[in-house]
Each structure stands twice: as structure tokens, then as C-alpha cells.
Amino acid sequence: MSDEQQVSRRGFLAIATSAIGGLIGAALAIPAIAYIVGPALQRTEQGEWVRLGLTSNIELGTPTLFKTVIQRQSGWIVNENELSAYVLTENGREFIAMSNICTHLGCRVRWIGDQQQFFCPCHNAVFDKDGEVVSGPPPRPLDRYEVKVEDDQLFILGG
Amino acid sequence: MATRVGNWLEERFGWRAVWEAIFLRKIPKVNWLYTLGSATLFVAFIQIVTGILLTIYYVPTPDHAYDSVQYITNEVTAGWLIRGLHHWGASAMVVLSVLHMLRVMFYGSYKFPREVTWFSGVFLLLVVLGFGFTGYLLPWDQKAYWATTVGTEIAGVAPGIGETILLVMRGGQNLTAVTLARFFGVHVWVLPAALILLITIHMYLVIKIGISAVPKKEVGQ
User: Among B108, B173, B184, B193, which residue is least crowded by beta carbons within 10 Å?
Assistant: First the structure.
């Protein structure tokens, strides 16, 4: 009465071979994928406070470019990366620090004093003094750094 | 569904005949020693996969070789596993190749009509040893450095051409960045090309001629 299916020797071996093969394949493929994507998933540490310079060097009302070098670990190498930021203050007490990296595709923007605007040479993006988009393709204003002042020295939180 | 896809492909390039020739061919009644060749092929496959993965992070220059290997081993997710498989797989390749060769020798499987299969197997063994020798230098640690110093020095004592062989292997008088770069090049390009070519020949012959049976005991001797 029972309708048990008879598994032939050949069928059993085929299933067993596929199962073991699948296990071995998974045992190899899963670590392989983890291995390839691993470094991409590692969190970049929240940066440290990076000293830019004296606050008295900043012209009132004009974005001033500060450049500094930070050390960064990438893989097995410690790189020296340049960190640049435009700092703007209207009153000498409150500061905003903007990244000079265009939010469109990562080119460097430049302050043009005559026109009182930031220009990106790659795709003609234009930002105003506060980093807001005036025209062109950027999806958002220029990124800002956290800022603090200690002993008349300006620091930004470098990421 | 699977059958339909199979049929669709079958009509276009007739893969079933190939599949049957490879996997459903008739073989004589043999024993477990006849699996050593397949085992070697399997480990070779593991070596190819893990070797390709290692090149994603490994850098073959004296500045970076050691550090990149340490990075793979200690920092990259599952890097210890990938490197470990490649490391132990290398030894397994040599052991399995030699055992497979001994099986072929003791059962007389190298005889007519399988001489060419045997020749290709001998070259495959040389390729495997070449992989072991060149791969040993790549971690660029003390063991690697001195093992290759000694290994190339041994090649150097061959009469007549020894000195030339040593210079060509090292790419100069000393073991330098040039040596590391050429060992890497040989390890990841020259030898794999040779390996794949020889495996193709070897496997074609195994399938085309068929494998030998276990020799019969002679009665009454």
C-alpha cells in the first residue's frame, strides 16, 4: 500500500555527490566572498581632531583654504593624506568648515573671490559662500566638518 | 524546467555527449588508489581558486610582500583560511601527485597505449614542484629568503651551466626585488598556463583511452 519511492543506487550516489559537492562549494564560496568584501565593510574610524591653524588667520567673510596632512592606515600602509577645508567666519567667533570636495563626483572646488562663489572645474558646479548649491549637478551642499576652537587654534574633526 | 534548459542547450551545442564521455564513461572494476588522480585534480582546483584570491591583496615587492601577507593573515576576513588552504594545499599537491605516480608505476598503467599520458604526468609533477619552489619565496620572510638562497645555490652547482641557471633564476647575482618579481610572475602566469595545458592533455588522454584495470595475479608462478 505504502507508496515509498525506491531510490536506486545510481540515484543515491548522484544525490550524495551533488550534496557533498554543494557543501564543499559553499565552504569555499562563502569565505571567498567574505574575503573579497571584508575590507570594504570595515568601519573607517571616526577621525581625530585635526589642527588647522590660528583663527586670526581667517579673513572675515571670506572662505579661507586650510591644508593639513593627516596619517591614515590603509591596508598594511600608513598614508599621508592631504586634508583641505574652507573655513568661513562672519564674526571671528563662529566658524564653519567646509570640505572642498564637490558633492557631485569628488573633484576639488575652488573659491573665486571676484564672483563670491565656489566653482568646480569638472562639471561647472557652483556653490555659494555657505556651500549651498547655486547651479550645476551637485545633489547636496558642500559637506561640513565639526569645528572647535581651543587657545585661538581652529580644529576640525577629520574623517 | 532544468530539463527544458538542458534540451535548449543540447540542441545548440550537444553537451550531453560531452557530459557522458566525461562522467558516464565505462571503467574497469578498480580500487580506492585510483582516486588519487582525481584527488590531485581537486586540490589543484582549490589551489587555483585560493591562489587567485590571494593575489587580490598580495604585492610582490620587498617593500610590501611580507606586510601584505601579514595583512591577509591577520586583518582580512577569512584571510587566514584562504592562505591556510593555499599553504597546506601546496604540500597536498606534492604528496598526492607522488602517490598518484606510484600507483601508476606499481600497477603498470604507464604501459602501451598510455605512454603519452605518463609523459604529460611527469611534466605535471615538474610543474607542481615548480609551483612549490616559486611559491615558497613569496611570503618574503626569513624562511622564504634563505630557502630560495639555498635552492638557487643548489641549482648553481650543476656542472657547466649551473652558474647561468643561478643567474637566470635570481635575475642577477643576489636574491633581490628582481628575484621576487620573477618568482611571482612564474608562479601566477607561466606555471598556471603550463598546468592548464598539461591537465587538458592528461585528462583528454585519460578519457579517450580509458583507465587501466588492476593487473591480474599470475596463477601458479
Answer: B173
Are A8 and A67 in a shared domain? no
A55 contact partners, CB below 8 Å, separation of at least 6: A89, A92, A95, A149, A152, A153, A154
The tens digit of pLDDT for each residue in A51-62 reads 888 888 788 888
**B82 close to A (CB below 8 A):** yes
According to DSSP, residue A90 is labeled S
- Judged by DSSP in three states, B178 sits in helix
Total domains in chain B come to 1
Domain of A82, CATH number, reads 2.102.10.10
On whether residue B20 sits in a domain, the answer given is no
Q: Based on the domain organization, do A72 and A101 belong to the same domain?
A: yes
Best of B48, B69, B77 to substitute, by most chain A Cβ atoms within 10 angstroms, is: B77
Q: Which H helix or E strand runs over A106?
A: none
Question: What distance in Å separates the CA atoms of residue B124 and residue B128, rounded to the nearest whole number?
Answer: 6
Per the CB < 8 Å rule, is B82 touching A36?
A: no
What is the extent of the structural domain holding B38?
30-209
Q: How many domains does chain A have?
A: 2
- Tell me the pLDDT band of A159, cut-offs 50, 70 and 90: low
Chain A nearest-CA distance from B71, in A, is 6
User: Can you tell me the ipTM of this complex?
Assistant: 0.87
CATH number at residue B202: 1.20.810.10
On chain B, the residues whose CB falls within 8 A of the CB of A20 are none
Is B76 in contact with A38 (Cβ distance < 8 A)? Answer: yes
Please tell me if residue B48 touches chain A, with a CB cutoff of 8 Å: no
* Residue B43 contacts A where some CB pair is shorter than 8 Å: no
Percent of chain B with pLDDT over 90: 95
pLDDT at B108 over 60: yes
Same-domain check for residues A63 and A127: yes
Q: Which amino acid is at B38?
A: S
Question: Over 60: is that where the pLDDT of A156 sits?
Answer: yes
**Mean pLDDT of all residues in A8-13:** 93
- Across the interface, whether the CB atoms of B78 and A31 are under 8 A apart is answered yes
Could you give the maximum distance between any two Cα atoms of chain A, in Å?
96
The whole domain housing A54 covers 49-157
Res A2 pLDDT > 60: no
Shared domain for A7 and A84, answered yes or no, is: no
pLDDT band at A6 (very low <50, low <70, confident <90, very high): confident
